[in-house]
Amino acid sequence: MFEENVDERYMRRALELAERGVGWCSPNPPVGAVLVRQGVVIGEGWHALAGGAHAEVAALRDALSRHRAADLRGAHLYVTLEPCNHHGRTPPCTRAILEAGIGAVIVGTSDPNPRVAGGGAAFLRSSGVTVHTGMCESEARHLIRMFAYHTTAGRPFVVAKFGASLDGKTATSAGASQWITGSESRREVHALRHAVDAVLVGVGTVIADNPALTARRDEASRSPTPVVIDSSGRIPQTCRLVAHAVEQGLIVATTSKMPVATENALIASGVEIWRLPADDRGRVQLAPLLDQLGESGVQSVLVEGGGTVHGSFFDDDLVDEVWAFLAPSIIGGASAPTAVAGLGSSTLDHAARFHRTAVDIVGEDVLIRLGRRTN
User: Which helix (H) or strand (E) holds 143?
Assistant: First the structure.
């Protein structure tokens, strides 16, 4: 009888609400919730800010602002992620659900943390609440993919983003690169920056473009922490990233080759210096860098560097997702830079394989999003 009353439309609405918290609620996952009684939505909520009310509590508060407490009893709660059953910055949501007298909870996906997965659902069931799990599960898991990967692997989820011509060129042979893709694509990039915790480039990009690496959107947004790979200390002291290091933050990943004087000058400007092991070419090893970022709480990294940096991440098999913005143009030229350089694959069998996530038209460009390889 309960199954007959479950309606997927409400979970899809909860997924829409959860999107509103993307970026803002980090390091917590984005979650949405919808409260339904007798086929009528009586409350909605989402996790809007880390340290603030979780989606379930926000939905309950929304319902109580418009209805009597008695009207909530027996209602169905649709929530994209399994309600928490432990104390964090806020009390456990399972307690609030019980106190409100909710009759059934429909869950999108279970908690990705293997130590607590299923605990919230089990507690609710043991307390007499009907629980249905797995509704729109693939969509719900995609929504929390960055949080889930960091929770299980300890490293940040890596997104490689680049804009290129149809033949994969990121600049002309003379170095002209602004702008290959259109303004609509650039707006998407700023939204993506808002969604991640850190954005990473190589020092060559800093020298050539002097980027700000902020998230600039029409509405309010948060900017990720910039990370620069600079193996020998070439970053200009006058660049925008160093100039704004105090307010925006800046991590420079380097090796023993960076002069101490350079390190001291950068630290005095508010820059955080991480000396890491070098590979056999004298470059910063990426795996230790990701490990340290993960330990510092960074759940997601957007790699925006040039072909060399992208090539290194692909060579080391460290990319979890690709966002490729392709412009309707052919640049050509054997010496023109490509989106992914590095050592590359010697055979097609060793090429990095991903499955298609989505293809969208963005202005005049095409955005191809590829998810982690399925093997």
Answer: helix 137-143
Contact 370, 354 (CB under 8 A): yes
| CB distance 371 to 321 below 8 Å | yes
Instruction: Provide the sign of the torsion angle of the four alpha carbons 256, 262, 266, 267, taken in this order.
Output: positive
Distance of CA 233 to the CA centre of its chain: 29
List C-alpha distances in Å: 111 to 141, 252, 272, 331, 374: 10, 34, 33, 46, 21
* Residues classed as catalytic: 56
Please, what is the end-to-end C-alpha distance for the chain in angstroms? 40
pLDDT, tens digit (0-9, with 9 covering 90-100), for 235-247: 999 999 999 999 9
Residues sharing a CB contact under 8 Å with residue 1, sequence separation 6 or more, in sequence order: none
List C-alpha distances in Å: 310 to 44, 76, 292, 301, 335: 41, 46, 19, 13, 17
Amino acid of residue 168: G
Cβ(302)–Cβ(293) below 8 Å: no
Q: How far are the Cα atoms of 51, 54, 177 from residue 88, in angstroms, in the given order? A: 9, 11, 46
Q: Please indicate, yes or no, whether the overall pTM of this predicted structure exceeds 0.85.
A: yes
Residue 176 belongs to what H/E stretch? none
**Higher per-residue pLDDT: 50 or 286:** 286
Strands, sheet with 300-303, edge to edge from the N-terminal-most edge strand? 272-275, 251-254, 225-229, 198-202, 300-303, 157-165, 321-327, 365-371, 355-362
